[in-house]
Amino acid sequence: MLIKRDAPLGLLLLVWAFSSGCIHITDEIDLVYEPRGGREQLAGAGDVPVQIYVVDNRPVQTDVGKINGKRGEIISNQEVSEFIGSAIRKELTARGFASGDKVLISGDIKTLYNRFEVGFWSGDSHADFVFEIKVEQPKGTIHYARTFQTAGLEPNIQVMRGHNAKAALEQAVSKGINELFLDPKFIAALYKAADLTPP
User: How many other C-beta atoms are found inside a 10 Å radius of the C-beta of residue 131?
Assistant: First the structure.
């Protein structure tokens, strides 16, 4: 927790309790992905049936940060793999891609984690997102493979709690998904995996 020098005694005692391990708090957060801006429907995308399969290979799959150093976890209420898979599906649907099993997007989450950095009067919430995406045909031919690494920042925070971590985490994920869909090779691979010519 971040405090000022002139903080009242009660607050100082509370901070001392946190730092001494007397209080252990778990913050649960609901991560949300909302596409921002318009999306153009792509020609022929309805003829590209896509299945999404995302795995979470992080050591601790429910933990997305710490509240106070090593004490107090920040927990995602939904599975991170489902959250990322849903974000990819939203972007595909917005562009007109169909759901099906002709093309497989496989995702591998390496990192999704928030850390707090303490400053003199305030601090920052930093989130890191690392994930690998592949576009494959059911028979196993890989048409696309790339690893993305993005970061989110919630600056000038006063408390190390879940809502500040949530803002940074969502920002990192939004940047990562945006980079994926801005890659023309990724879009082209979806068509190629469906045996179609990219528009």
Answer: 25
Tens of pLDDT, residues 67-110: 765 668 999 999 999 999 999 999 999 999 999 999 999 999 99
123-136 and 103-118 as β-strands: parallel, antiparallel, unpaired? antiparallel
How many helices (H) and strands (E) the chain has is answered by 4, 8
Strands (E) located in 23-89: 27-29, 49-56, 63-68, 71-76
pLDDT digits (tens, 9 = 90+) for 123-144: 888 999 999 999 999 888 999 9
- Which H or E element spans position 87? helix 80-94
Domain boundaries, given as residue ranges, for the chain: 18-35+42-193
CATH topology of domain 18-35+42-193: Rossmann fold (3.40.50)
Which phi and psi (to 5°) does residue 167 adopt?
-60, -45
Q: What is the pTM of this model?
A: 0.84
